[in-house]
């Protein structure tokens, strides 16, 4: 969420930033809403002051035995009381209108973010690793998995519908091994604290991490009003909500492996084959809570941590910076890491690392304070995939496939696979 005071002082800057994102100007509308709210509040304050003064005058009139004046003042106080009750309801409506208008406003891109309309204008930052020369026409992951008898889409559809997968045997273990490998790497080498968070959150947590109200259609809701998490970013980030953290304790770095749930609203017809775009998937998520001065350096550090996963697995990838038109709602700047998928003959996203500035900190009232200072300021937050486990499984299958349809286990995962070096057809 953006600061309305900043918007009042910088209306042209807001509209220019929105234009970079391909959005319509909003400054005038927001300022008018804010002025209406402030004017209303001023009028209520004037009424309250008059009520207080009239109440005092009642006492004076009673002391002077001026019953007529006292009665007139009592009638005035009663009228003001009714006006205040009505006015307070109006104030709540104006507050809600302004809050909603601010809550659907995207974050301001950093000046260094390339301006562009869509993904075609993203900019490649680096490319790491060589695409494998398999010596044969590579298959896609679902062809490999089904031929091995270890990936079942039909049974998953029978019990859950489209966009679900059942993994069995060595492929199920390979996915588990990938997640364990990532957690061990991030906790032992990258300084993240492992967390096992809830998979359901309330409205406040979803709102505080900018998933509501804009993305409600992308989430699954339970019958008692909770939300299944679309990513562990939500509970990990919201751990700081409502707190004042000593700046000496920052940054706080968290990592979690969780199931994630997304309705995939608006993705009809995209990636319908295989397990690339699922309603339920596993992801290792990285979250950092930092001071404003360190958030940009933390962004580079987080991205490097995610890249290390792919480097250790020997998977070719490229890192791109998203342009303003392709960047996520709450981000100031985003790096996407795209892994090479031989079966698709394309790079596909496997991690997205974003710095959000104080956008989420303001929404969830998470602040920090230097030792000895009275003043507080909003924390900066960052999130990134470290990485998407299901997509990493796909990348391993396609990059390490053999001509006979078997899959070689990457060296880094062999200890997690009980020494297994090759995955063959289920017996």
Automatic annotation (TrEMBL):
<keyword id="KW-0963">Cytoplasm</keyword>
<dbReference type="InterPro" id="IPR033729">
    <property type="entry name" value="SerRS_core"/>
</dbReference>
<feature type="binding site">
    <location>
        <position position="285"/>
    </location>
    <ligand>
        <name>L-serine</name>
    </ligand>
</feature>
<dbReference type="InterPro" id="IPR002317">
    <property type="entry name" value="Ser-tRNA-ligase_type_1"/>
</dbReference>
<comment type="function">
    <text>Catalyzes the attachment of serine to tRNA(Ser). Is also able to aminoacylate tRNA(Sec) with serine, to form the misacylated tRNA L-seryl-tRNA(Sec), which will be further converted into selenocysteinyl-tRNA(Sec).</text>
</comment>
<dbReference type="InterPro" id="IPR002314">
    <property type="entry name" value="aa-tRNA-synt_IIb"/>
</dbReference>
<keyword id="KW-0648">Protein biosynthesis</keyword>
<feature type="binding site">
    <location>
        <begin position="231"/>
        <end position="233"/>
    </location>
    <ligand>
        <name>L-serine</name>
    </ligand>
</feature>
<keyword id="KW-0067">ATP-binding</keyword>
<dbReference type="InterPro" id="IPR015866">
    <property type="entry name" value="Ser-tRNA-synth_1_N"/>
</dbReference>
<keyword id="KW-0030">Aminoacyl-tRNA synthetase</keyword>
<comment type="subunit">
    <text>Homodimer. The tRNA molecule binds across the dimer.</text>
</comment>
<keyword id="KW-0436">Ligase</keyword>
<dbReference type="Pfam" id="PF02403">
    <property type="entry name" value="Seryl_tRNA_N"/>
</dbReference>
<dbReference type="InterPro" id="IPR045864">
    <property type="entry name" value="aa-tRNA-synth_II/BPL/LPL"/>
</dbReference>
<keyword id="KW-0547">Nucleotide-binding</keyword>
<comment type="similarity">
    <text>Belongs to the class-II aminoacyl-tRNA synthetase family. Type-1 seryl-tRNA synthetase subfamily.</text>
</comment>
<comment type="pathway">
    <text>Aminoacyl-tRNA biosynthesis; selenocysteinyl-tRNA(Sec) biosynthesis; L-seryl-tRNA(Sec) from L-serine and tRNA(Sec): step 1/1.</text>
</comment>
<dbReference type="InterPro" id="IPR042103">
    <property type="entry name" value="SerRS_1_N_sf"/>
</dbReference>
<dbReference type="GO" id="GO:0004828">
    <property type="term" value="F:serine-tRNA ligase activity"/>
</dbReference>
<feature type="binding site">
    <location>
        <begin position="262"/>
        <end position="264"/>
    </location>
    <ligand>
        <name>ATP</name>
    </ligand>
</feature>
<dbReference type="InterPro" id="IPR010978">
    <property type="entry name" value="tRNA-bd_arm"/>
</dbReference>
<dbReference type="InterPro" id="IPR006195">
    <property type="entry name" value="aa-tRNA-synth_II"/>
</dbReference>
<protein>
    <recommendedName>
        <fullName>Serine--tRNA ligase</fullName>
        <ecNumber>6.1.1.11</ecNumber>
    </recommendedName>
</protein>
<dbReference type="Pfam" id="PF00587">
    <property type="entry name" value="tRNA-synt_2b"/>
</dbReference>
<feature type="binding site">
    <location>
        <position position="385"/>
    </location>
    <ligand>
        <name>L-serine</name>
    </ligand>
</feature>
<feature type="domain" description="Aminoacyl-transfer RNA synthetases class-II family profile">
    <location>
        <begin position="173"/>
        <end position="410"/>
    </location>
</feature>
<feature type="binding site">
    <location>
        <begin position="349"/>
        <end position="352"/>
    </location>
    <ligand>
        <name>ATP</name>
    </ligand>
</feature>
């Amino acid at each position: 969420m953006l600061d309305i005071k900043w918007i009042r002082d910088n209306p042209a800057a807001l509209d220019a930033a929105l234009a970079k994102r391909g959005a319509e100007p909003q400054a005038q509308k927001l300022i008018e809403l804010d002025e209406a709210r402030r004017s209303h509040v001023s009028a209520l304050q004037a009424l309250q002051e008059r009520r207080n003064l009239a109440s005092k005058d009642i006492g004076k009139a009673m002391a002077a035995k001026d019953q007529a004046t006292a009665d007139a003042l009592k009638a005035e106080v009663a009228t003001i009381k009714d006006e205040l009750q009505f006015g307070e309801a109006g104030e709540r409506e104006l507050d809600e209108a302004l809050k909603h208008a601010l809550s659907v406003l995207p974050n301001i891109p950093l000046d260094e973010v390339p301006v562009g309309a869509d993904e075609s204008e993203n900019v490649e930052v680096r490319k790491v690793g060589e695409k494998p020369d398999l010596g044969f026409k590579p298959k896609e992951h679902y062809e490999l998995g089904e031929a091995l008898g270890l990936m079942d889409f039909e049974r998953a559809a029978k019990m859950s519908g489209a966009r679900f997968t059942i993994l069995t045997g060595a492929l199920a273990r390979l996915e588990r091994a990938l997640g364990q490998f990532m957690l061990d790497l991030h906790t032992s080498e990258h300084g993240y604290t492992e967390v096992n968070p809830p998979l359901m959150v309330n409205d406040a947590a979803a709102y505080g991490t900018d998933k509501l109200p804009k993305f409600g259609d992308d989430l699954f809701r339970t019958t008692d009003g909770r939300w299944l998490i679309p990513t562990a970013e939500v509970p990990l980030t919201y751990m700081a909500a409502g707190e004042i953290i000593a700046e000496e304790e920052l940054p706080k770095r968290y990592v979690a492996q969780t199931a994630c749930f997304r309705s995939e609203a608006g993705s009809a017809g995209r990636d319908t084959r295989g397990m690339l775009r699922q309603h339920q998937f596993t992801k290792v998520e990285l979250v950092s809570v930092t001071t404003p001065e360190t958030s940009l350096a933390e962004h580079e550090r987080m991205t490097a941590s995610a890249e290390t996963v792919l480097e250790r697995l020997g998977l070719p990838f490229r890192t791109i910076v998203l342009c303003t038109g392709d960047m996520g709602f709450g981000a100031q700047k985003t790096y996407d890491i795209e892994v090479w998928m031989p079966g698709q003959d394309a790079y596909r996203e496997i991690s997205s690392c974003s710095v959000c500035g104080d956008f989420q900190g303001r929404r969830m009232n998470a602040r920090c304070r230097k030792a000895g200072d009275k003043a507080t300021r909003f924390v900066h937050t960052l999130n990134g995939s470290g990485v998407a486990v299901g997509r990493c499984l796909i990348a391993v299958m396609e990059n390490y496939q053999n001509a006979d349809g078997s899959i070689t286990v990457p060296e880094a995962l062999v200890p997690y696979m009980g020494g297994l070096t090759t995955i063959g057809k289920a017996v």
